[in-house]
């Protein structure tokens, strides 16, 4: 009999975390590695937010809080949803957790039963299927091909829905592709969901503020108000506010769901860091002007990386609408052999050889449910991105 639980056997460690850790180990051992594997802004947390955290410490705001967040932060989240998304929530409809991942985890574990299905568009964030499995549910993968901009069609969504479907997870702009759904594209999906009232919607809006070329972000309950009562709208301060380590995610949704998530959180982590919560209040209520400045920097980096990767033999790199990732196709590289003698049988072999031979850490496409591809995070300096792409080109030129 195994000491470990059967539940744990259903999941795998996060590939993005594993590759980032491997790259860090190589650097500590003296290797010259450029890591483009982590989904983390290279900008610092804004000074006003750091000052708010220091003020909270000095004021003694270091005690336990309500399990799912202080009232001040819940109100700031309500104000943010109203201001930016046209969604009206009260504090009793808001959950604050230790990062966006815990929000998703709480919601799925609080609602899934054995046999429940969760529709997940691919390419997907690596944690979605495993969190579903931890909750006892079954991931149902619907693939958005490159020819469709890595976005799923209404017909594909309709075909995936069964009487066992409990959730549809939606992420736009997307991790890992950066693909963003227009209002019309999203409306076509919500029209399908209206025909299936037993299906709940989980909208992961973490990259809301990273949108380019006039792309206008929208979220399902905003596009189709009839879905409001069965939608959990998820967001956080990690990406836009460069607060990944502060670990604050939040969501708005129906009170019965939020209460169930609170119950679960009260028996796991209890409250998020009190200091981080006060910092998040400032993030949401304070100056927002830096968001446009940083978005412009990411746009410049996106265009740089797309141009340089498309200059690499065997790589086709689409131009994404948002986030800070690109998801190049490497079908023409499969079956070749690297200069160092590695047979490139799949995208994982490509990425391992690229790291070992040329010192660039990226994440293989199979981790995100669509191959042969790899994900590049361009949340790095222009110089680092230029050098990394030059190394990728050298690697590709060495394939034979």
Could you characterize what this model shows?
The chain folds into two domains: 6-44 and 290-397, Alpha-Beta Complex (Aspartate Aminotransferase, domain 1), CATH 3.90.1150.10; 64-285, 3-Layer(aba) Sandwich (Aspartate Aminotransferase, domain 2), CATH 3.40.640. It is globular, with a radius of gyration of 21 Å. The protein has helices spanning 6-9, 15-28, 47-58, 71-85, 100-111, 127-134, 154-160, 183-194, 220-223, 255-266, 274-285, 289-309, 347-358, 382-397, and strands spanning 34-35, 94-97, 117-122, 138-143, 165-171, 200-204, 231-236, 249-252, 325-326, 360-361, 363-364, 374-377. It has a seven-stranded mixed sheet, sandwiched between helices. A three-stranded antiparallel sheet has the order 9-12-11. A two-stranded parallel ribbon has the order 1-10. Strand 5 (165-171), helix 8 (183-194) and strand 6 (200-204) form a beta-alpha-beta unit. It has 14 helices and twelve strands. The model has no long low-confidence stretch (mean pLDDT 96). It is of the alpha/beta class.
